[in-house]
Every structure is written in structure tokens, then in C-alpha cells.
Amino acid sequence: MGHLLGYARVSTSDQDAALQVDALNAAGCYRVFVETMSGSLQHRPELDKLLDQIRPGDTLVVWRLDRLGRSIRHLIDQLHTLAERDIGFRSLQETIDTTSSGGRLIFHVFAALAEFERDLIRERTNAGLTAARARGRTGGRPSRLTADQVKTARRLYEQQDMTVAQIGDVLGVSRTTIYRTLNRNPAPAAPRRPRPAV
Length: 198
Fold this sequence. Notes:
With 198 residues, the protein is of the alpha/beta class.
């Protein structure tokens, strides 16, 4: 039988992890890693240490699901990674234990719900883009410059008296906006002169 390794997390140093640590110790964890960091951060040093030390057959234990995952999708990805390493997962508050058949079933339901949510978001996004195209909108951010400002930017750019950054300063926008505006609004082609009669 493997070891139980606990993971506790609080968002700031002002918060107390004692409740989580006590619960994890009571659950039989032989070691508890305590993180003082927001769950939104990609890399968490104490979690990285735990994942480095945990071995196949061991179980990672948390007090509550949101201590491990930033979102349902992130949590599912984490649990998939643990399962691939033959590591169990247990959450005390939600009484989920992937080392049992019931816990594995709940995990698969979570995964299916996360996939369903992702499909819904994709469908809504595609439907919105289709509707926007039908109304003549091609997407992208609208220009932050008025038509007169676009003409001014074009004139200053063609005169080559100022840099693009300086033009942006004059019009109160970033250099990127100037470049984007000039690309969106190319200079009109010069009228062709008629050929002289031979």
C-alpha cells in the first residue's frame, strides 16, 4: 500500500492553513506540503515538490478540490496526469477517492462535463462568428482612430517626417495601433495617367 501525501494551499500569508493541515493529518497523510500562493499561478513550488516526490501507488490528498485545480478543466488535466503515473487522488470535503470504483466514476463524470462545457463554448463562438459575418462584420477590434485621424496618420507616415511611434504619440494611440490602422486602410492607388497618343 502506498503513502498518502497531503497538499494544502492558502492564497496569502495572512490566511491560516491549520484547518487543512489538521484534516490532512487526521486522514493519515505522512507528509503535508503547504502552499501560500494563488491557485491561478501556473507553477506552484510546493505542489511541484510533492509531484516530484510522490510515487506510483501513492495518493495525493487535498482538503477540497479547489485547493488543487484552478478550474474544472485544470483539475481534470491534473487528475489525468496523476492517473497516468498510477497515483491516486482523494478530496476530503467532496469525499472523492479515485482509488475506489465510485471515485473513478465521479472523476469520469467531471471529465465528461468539462468536455461538454468546452464543446458548448466552441459552438457558441462559432455561431457568434457566423452571425457577425452575416451582418458584414469580419471580426477583429474596431479602429480606435476616426476617419480624419486615419488620414492624418497616413499623411504623416508618407511624409516620413515622423516615426510611427511619434505619430502614435501625436494621435494618442500605440505604435501597434498605427501599424494596424495603416494596414487596414491602405493608401488609395494613384490615378493612372492616360498614355500619350503616338
